[in-house]
Amino acid sequence: MAALVACGLAGTARADDDKPTVFTFAYQGLVVGAGAGLAGGYLVARDGGWKSSDWKPLVYGAGIGALVGSGVGLTLGIVDVTQDKPGRTRYVLRDMALGEGFGATVGGIAGALAAISTKKPEHILLGASIGVLSGAVLGAVFGFVEGRHARSHGAPDTGSQHLALSVVPVVEAGGKLAYLPALSGRY
């Protein structure tokens, strides 16, 4: 129940001016940490082969991961909010969460393919768990790089996403104007 509340609040925790707050980062860290902890707990639990009574490492992993993740998110959020320019925290936590989701999907698919050939359905969870952990690490790396790039180029911290489809004039080689569709976005 608490995880559902935390996931629901993570998307709605915004200040009046729509900029991320310290607690936005704490909730994002909680969700990312819980996902990584659950995946790590599964890998620990299946060490001697998965049995239906091996649920305790899953609970411990999710709980410890959620607490550590919320602490890291809160700490990074405090550091980020106190700086003049927006920091990397927003990018890192966002990309870690997206990386976990992508990793779980790709890992689950790879695990399902392995399960078909080995006739062991446990490979689906194994692949998803490895994918979650790999996605979190890759998301942290990509988010850090993206945040550094945005920060060095003075990207404004709007806290919102924007995607627009428009028609723009383009000068052709002969000097004539052509109007082409263009897709632009910012996040």
Distance between the termini: 31 Å
Note the main sheet: 2 strands, antiparallel
Please count the helical segments. 5
The low-confidence parts are 1-7, 12-16
- β-sheet strand percentage: 5-15%
Instruction: Name the helix and strand elements from N-terminus to C-terminus, one letter apiece.
Output: HHHHHEE
The side-by-side strand order for the widest beta sheet comes to 1-2
Could you tell me the radius of gyration in angstroms? 21 Å
Structural class: mainly alpha
Please supply descriptive tags for the structure shown above.
single chain, 187 residues, mainly alpha, 65% helix, flat
Outline:
65% of the residues lie in helices and 11% in strands. With 187 residues, it is mainly α.
Topology:
Elements: H1 2-12, H2 22-45, H3 56-81, H4 89-118, H5 122-152, E1 162-171, E2 177-186
Antiparallel strand pairs: 1-2
Helix pairs in contact: 1-2, 2-3, 2-4, 2-5, 4-5
